[in-house]
Amino acid sequence: MTEKKISTRFERPVLVPIEGVPVQSNFAANWDRVKVFQAQPDDLLIATYTKAGTTWISEIVDMINNNGDTEICRRGPTHERVPYLEFGGPNPLPIGIEQAINMPSPRIIKTHFPYQLVPKSFWEQDCKVIYVARNAKDNAVSLYHFNRMTCLQVFSGTWEEHLENFMKGNLSFGSWYDHVRNWWENKDRHRMLYMFYEDMKKDTRKEVMRVMEFLEKELPDEIIDKIVYHTSFEVMKENPMANYSSIAETGYMDFKISPFMRKGSVADWKNYFTVAQNERFDADYKKKMSGTTLKFVSEF
Ligand code: PPS
Predict the structure, then answer these.
(1) Ligand 1 centre from 101 Cα, in Å?
(2) CA distances from 124 to 115, 180, 195, 280 (A)
(3) Considering its fold, how many domains does the chain have in total?
(4) Residue 5 pLDDT more than 70?
(5) How many degrees, rounded to 5, is the angle at CA 210 between CA 208 and CA 203?
(6) Is residue 190 within 8 Å of 123, Cβ to Cβ?
(7) Cα–Cα distances in angstroms (integers) from residue 262 to residues 232, 247, 255, 259, 271, in the given order
(8) pLDDT greater than 70 at residue 2
(9) For labelling alongside 242, which of 63, 71, 94, 184 has CA 20 to 30 A away?
(10) Is the CB of residue 145 below 6 angstroms from any atom belonging to ligand 1?
(11) Which domain holds residue 36?
């Protein structure tokens, strides 16, 4: 498939392996610095497979940390408040590792790395981690649209081609299946809260309260209500500090192709998977996810 040109200033990255995991070339270029990143005990790591709800949980955590103060949470766009550790530019976008190093504590740091690529110092320092997982089908659809709309991502083709790439793990950060499984299987070794996008959709308040408990934070009911409201899809979509419009303004994302805050729903996959694709995907999923206690819902 020929892609619609988004930016003439930056050629899309390609995949290169880091310790056997395909990662986009502009991120892999910083790997030597990223792997020796020095975490601090009060760092909070937010880890996800791309498009699983990173921006949503980032806003929730920032709101909790700041006692529901929306003005403080508008101090900068998400990618400045929550540095993306392995992010590798291009100009004028920040290099994540440099942002993280220069950020005052306590830091919230985002990563899409699979478990095995997380810099060791996070574990040595016993940092808290929030992992958010999203069901494979919606995650695949969301990533398809993201890859179309930004030249910051490796191009993964038509929907049919993208779905093949997803099933083969031929995307930046590798296999969704390995990602969600490895994080799940290692969760009890660390101070980790493993969350699901679908739970957050179903009962946002309950999940906000789980995060508060994990962060050892108590807030009055009316502040919790405020956090739930401020972090709803509809409100975040209109919030320039949470909707990535500042990146769109640089020309590296094209919201006319697909907005960052696209649908924010569960079971949108039904609008994309053909019956045949769905049957093939389910059979393959069963094999790849056999032997794990990890369970997802992909519709309500
Ligand atoms: S990224 O690029 O990996 O950081 O993207 P990420 O933030 O992980 O995922 C983007 C998808 O999450 C949806 N989103 C939300 N859904 C529900 N409620 C809220 N508040 C919310 N904020 C972001 C966003 O719309 C993307 O999903 P899709 O399905 O594409 O709409």
Answers:
(1) 26
(2) 14, 22, 23, 42
(3) 1
(4) no
(5) 50
(6) yes
(7) 13, 15, 9, 5, 14
(8) no
(9) 184
(10) yes
(11) 15-288
The reply to whether 284 falls in a domain is yes
Nearest to 179 by CA among 24, 52, 78, 17: 52
Alpha-carbon distance 136 to 223, whole Å?
Answer: 33
CB of residue 263 inside a 6 A radius of ligand 1? yes
Determine the Cα–Cα distance for residues 281 and 162; give it in Å rounded to an integer: 13
Q: Give the model confidence (pLDDT) of 42-68 as tens digits.
A: 999 999 999 999 999 999 999 999 999
**Best mutation site among 147, 201, 233 for ligand 1, i.e. most ligand atoms within 8 A of its Cβ?**
233
* pTM score over 0.85: yes
Q: Give the mean pLDDT of 283-293.
A: 98
Band of residue 4 on the pLDDT scale cut at 50, 70, 90: low
Closest atom of ligand 1 relative to the 58 alpha carbon: 7
Largest CA distance in the chain: 53
Half-sphere exposure of 130 (CA within 13 A, CB side): 29
Q: Is residue 5 part of a domain?
A: no
The CATH number of whichever domain residue 218 belongs to comes to 3.40.50.300
- Which of 23, 46, 51, when mutated, tests ligand 1's pocket best, judged by the most ligand atoms within 8 Å of its CB? 51
Is 112 one of the annotated active-site residues of the chain?
yes
Does the structure show a pLDDT above 60 at 28? Answer: yes
Structural domain includes residue 297: no
Does residue 233 have its Cβ closer than 6 Å to ligand 1? yes
Alpha-carbon distance 173 to 153, whole Å? 11
3-state secondary structure of 18: strand
Q: Is 262 in the pocket of ligand 1 (CB under 6 A)?
A: yes
